[in-house]
Amino acid sequence: MVMLVLDTSLEGCSAALFVGAELLASRFEVMERGHAERLPVIVADICRETGFSPKALSRVAVTRGPGTFTGVRIGLSYAKGLGLARNIPVIGIDTLTATAVPHAGAAKPLLIAHTAGGTGKIYTATYDGHSLLTLRMPALLTPREATQDLTDGMVVGTGAEAVIAANPALAVAIGRHLPDAALFGAYALDLPPTDHPADPLYLREADAKPSAAPDLAHPHVRHATTERLALLSAIHSNCFSPGWTEEMLRSALSVPGSGALMVDLAGRTYGFLQFQWIAGEAELNTLCVLSAYRRQGFGKLLMEALVTELKARLTSKLFLEVAADNEGAIALYRGLGFKETGRRRGYYSRSEGATADAITMTLVL
Fold first, then answer.
1. How many C-beta atoms lie closer than 10 Å to residue 168's C-beta?
2. Nearest to residue 16, comparing CAs of 89, 103, 79?
3. Which residue ranges form the domains of the chain, and what is each CATH number?
């Protein structure tokens, strides 16, 4: 089994490549920000050093939190992209367990404590040092709350100093206090994917406030659901001939990484787009606005919302294909920064035997 292990959940960025339980290569760097730019670089370094390519992977493991919101999402997005591209399992390990694994075998209880931003609290869990049996599940507590049941033990993590200040009877464990893929990776070898999903684990409320109710005097974009397939099919048939059927839409949206956005105004839907995201790149499969309501900004709103979402997923490029005689759509895409990167001659059929080229366009995000 060839397994890539990743961590970007806190102030560290690490990756390690294992063949079975043997560690072949690893990287570990301390950083407060810049994980998104650095992670692909250190993975590429590991691949060059070992001679393995991502095609050889049979499993990916990644920390899923708790930790910084952005850091957790970076690691998970990268890992899931590899998993989708290679059709291999992605294993999620909570950050506290990943920190505890290198200290397994300790005679005393292990208290894992990582600082939680400027909250004055810590992400914490307690383990039996010998067996790593969880004695207290992950929680967000004050240092005093985290130690009130401990009369003896070892503390590991970025919040160790705060914990010791609250309970001087405890001792700081010797070793790395941030998760390191090389040190916890072998732990993930035999974990079943169904019991260890790569879903984010958050223990604190989001800092952002919920969005206000949509203003019905202005259009807004939202995700389309399968309950709206009949409506989306009708809109598509208004724009294209032949249009997509409900079953075609259902099939498109069932593919991993697939999604759709729709634009509403005063309770009515005027258009939608459907896209596919995989391994850090995305493709726009269709964009349609009811013919009577074009050139009113609905298409641009949909595309801007898509670009915003793809950037949040750390996407590098967005591809699309458009008919060369669709001047309105080409102007929209160029205005958004798309560049022509290819052309297929005579791809689209028109009346009386005429054809139109298909233009491939790319937006670097």
1. 9
2. 79
3. 2-97+179-195 (3.30.420.40), 102-172 (3.30.420.200), 220-364 (3.40.630.30)
DSSP for residue 176:
-
**Interior angle at CA 149, CA 143 and CA 154, nearest 5:** 65
Q: How many residues does the chain have?
A: 365
Residue 354 structure tokens:
């005429």
165 phi and psi, to 5 degrees? -60, -35
Angle, CA of 8, 144 and 136, to the nearest 5°: 60
Q: Band the pLDDT of 168: cuts 50, 70, 90.
A: very high
Which whole number is the average pLDDT over 250-260?
87
* Residue 333 is among the residues annotated as catalytic for this protein: yes
Q: Taking the model in full, what pTM does it have? A: 0.60
Q: Which residue shows structure tokens 């869990």?
A: 125
Number of neighbours of residue 290 by Cβ within 10 angstroms: 16
Residues whose CB is less than 8 angstroms from the CB of residue 205 and which lie 6 or more positions away in sequence, other chains included: none
- Using DSSP's 3-state secondary structure scheme, residue 163 falls into helix
pLDDT-derived band at 202 (thresholds 50, 70, 90) equals: confident
Complete edge-to-edge strand list for the sheet that includes strand 171-172 = 134-141, 122-127, 110-115, 154-156, 171-172
CA distance 69 to 65: 8
| Buried-state track 223-253, b at ≥16 Cβ within 10 A, e below 16 | ebeeebbeebbebbeebeeebbebeebeebb
Q: Quote the CA–CA distance of 125 and 138 in Å, as a whole number.
A: 5
**pLDDT over 70 (residue 324):** yes
Residue whose C-alpha is closest to residue 17's, from 71, 63, 53:
53
Catalytic residue among 246, 321, 340, 347: 321
Instruction: Enter the DSSP assignment of 186.
Output: G
> Cβ of 353: how many Cβ atoms within 10 Å?
6
pLDDT over 70 (residue 226): yes
The rounded distance, in Å, linking the Cα atoms of 106 and 100 is 10
DSSP for 60-85 reads EEEE--SS-HHHHHHHHHHHHHHHHH
- Asked whether residue 197 carries a pLDDT value surpassing 70, the answer given is yes
Q: Which amino acid is at 3?
A: M
